[in-house]
Amino acid sequence: MNSETLSAPAPATLTIASRESRLAMWQAEHVRDALRKLYPACDVKILGMTTRGDQILDRTLSKVGGKGLFVKELENALADGRADLAVHSLKDVPMALPDGFALTAIMEREDPRDAFVSNDYASLDALPAGAVVGTSSLRREAMLRARYPHLDVLPLRGNLDTRLAKLDRGDYAAIILAAAGLKRLGLDARIRALIDVEDSPPAAGQGALGIEIAAHRTDVAAWLAPLHDSQTALAVEAERMVSRALGGSCEVPLAAHAQWRAGELYLTGRVSTTDGRRVLTAEECGAVMNVADALALGRAVSDELDAQGARDIVNALLAGSQAGKGDA
Questions:
Q1: Is 92 a catalytic residue?
Q2: Per-residue pLDDT band at 3 (split at 50, 70, 90)
Q3: One-character DSSP codes across 205-247
Q4: Out of 30, 108, 112, 220, which could bridge 202 as a Cys pair, Cβ 3.0 to 4.6 Å?
Q5: The overall pTM is greater than 0.85
Q6: Which pLDDT tens digit goes with each residue over 54-71?
Q7: CA distances (Å), 266 to each of 146, 236, 256, 321, in order?
C-alpha cells in the first residue's frame, strides 16, 4: 500500500463484487479490510456472485470460453451499479478488458510460483511412471508433458477446496496449484514442493490481485489508489503484454513472469505446444520506470518468441480450440 495522499472525499459506502469461492471471498475480504482501514467511516460490503466459470465443471476452460467466464457477471454488476469494484485473481482476468472497464489497482503480489501438492509423494521427480497428475491449466499441462512424459496428466476443475478433495479421495496422485491461493487460505502445509520459475514460469499476473471498476468511476479510482503497488503493477503490465501481443488465452500454454533484480525488470516468456514437444522461451531485461517501459519490455519478449515461431503455435491452438467448440 503506498502513501499517496487521499485527495477524494471519503466514500460513504462501497460494494465489492466477488466470486463466492472461499479463496475469492478471502481476496474480497482482504480488500474490504484494507478499505476499512483507509476509510473507517465507510460501509464496505461484499456482493458474492456465482460465475459461469464456477458452474461449468465438466470441461476445461479452454473448451468453454476461457477466462472471461470468471469475470463477466462481476462486470455486469459494475455496469449496472450493484457494485463499485470487483476483485480478481489477476491470472484469471482476460488480457483485453471490454470497453468501459479498467483495472485501476494491482495489489502487492503473493508468491507467484506453482505448487506441487500430494499426500504420498514429495515432488514431481518422486512420482512413478503412470502416476495421475491433475491440473486446471494448459500451461502446467504442457510443462508436465515436456518434463515428465511418463506421467498421466488429467484435467482438474473446481475451486481450490474441490480440487484438494479430489486429491484426498484418491482421484490423483498429485495436483499442481497456484501457491498464492494455498498460502492466502493458510494451507501452506499442503504444499510439498514449490516449482522453480525456471522450470515452470507462471501465468501472467499469477499471485497478484487486480481491482476492476467501471472506467467512468474516477471517484472509485481515487479511493483505490492507496492500494496500488507500483512494482507489482509494472511487472504484471509487462507479463500481460507478452500474452496480449501473441493473442494468448487459457487456450494456449503461455507463461510470462517478471522479476525485479537490482533495479531492473527481468521478463521471461514461454510458449509451448500442448504435448510439450515444442517449447519456446525468450528473456529480456531492462530499466522499467513506467507503464510504457513495461509494455515495451513485454513487446520485446513477444517479438522474440514470435521470431521463434510462437505465433504459429498460438494460431494452430486457437484454430483447433474453435473447431472443438463448434463440435460441442
A1: yes
A2: very low
A3: TTT-EEEEEETT-HHHHHHHGGG--HHHHHHHHHHHHHHHHHT
A4: 112
A5: yes
A6: 555 444 444 544 556 678
A7: 24, 12, 11, 32
In CATH terms, the fold of domain 114-195 is D-Maltodextrin-Binding Protein; domain 2 (3.40.190)
Going by C-beta distance under 8 Å and a sequence separation of 6 or more, which residues neighbour residue 102? Answer: 212, 213, 214, 215, 221
C-alpha cell at 221: 479510482
For residue 55, what is its C-alpha cell?
A: 458452474
Q: Which of 92, 111, 229, 306 is catalytic?
A: 92
The CATH number of domain 229-328, selected from 1.10.220.30, 2.102.10.10, 3.30.160.40, 2.40.10.220: 3.30.160.40
Helices (H) and strands (E) in the chain, counts: 10, 13
Of 250, 131, 115, residue with least CA distance to 189: 115
Q: Which residues contact 41 (CB under 8 A, 6 or more apart)?
A: 10, 12
Q: Where are the domains of the chain?
A: 1-107+208-228, 114-195, 229-328
Alpha-carbon distance 77 to 105, whole Å?
18
Give dist(CA 218, CA 8) in Å, integer: 10
DSSP-assigned letters across all residues of 26-48:
HHHHHHHHHHHHH-TT-EEEEEE
Q: pLDDT tens digit string along 187-207?
A: 999 999 999 999 999 999 999
Q: Would you state the CATH architecture of domain 1-107+208-228?
A: 3-Layer(aba) Sandwich (3.40)
The CB-side HSE value for 178 (13 A sphere, CA atoms) comes to: 25
Same fold, 114-195 and 229-328: no
* Residue 300 parent element (H or E): helix 291-308
- The whole-angstrom separation of Cα 256 and Cα 204 is 5
Name the percent of the chain lying above pLDDT 70. Answer: 89
